[in-house]
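Recap from last week: sequence in, structure out.
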Amino acid sequence: MVYPIVAYGNPILKKRAKEIDKDYPDLQQLIDNMYDTMYFSQGVGLAAPQINLPIRLFVTDGSPFKGDEPGIESFVKVFINPEIIKEEGEEWKFNEGCLSIPGIREDVERKPLLHIKYFDRNFNPQDEYFSGIAARIIQHEYDHLEGVLFIDHLTPFKKRLLKGKLKDISDGIVDVDYKMKFSIKK
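Predicted structure tokens:
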């Protein structure tokens, strides 16, 4: 099943998501559906708040970056209740986009090394280190669980320049090849 992607402007994207337990209803089907949605939308990551679920879960697949970084094509993972322990190294810029903010891509600075604890799709605890593009994908999706969007990392000046485009997205004036869910205006 492919879910609609929640568009910029929906309050769920600005709220901290809640932890789940291994008995979360239909968890395996949800994970499969999130992958279906991510692939259909041509993303490299998808967080549960982007499909209107306020839970601490995201999925990744770095294969679109194959050729950019060795081994990234095998970065296919499920992160449940993740906790970033440490980010380190000199920040580096990378051009990021987001399925919830289509048509906007901007350089975002993030640290290249990451230590994270999480549960995998079978609720086995994991304690891992990631670097480069894999770390960046994790940081971007993790931000969604914290109610942070990649545009929140931009300067106030840059955000002002994007104000019109962001308003269009929240108003549903956007052309994408996937279904989106827009906030209802009162």
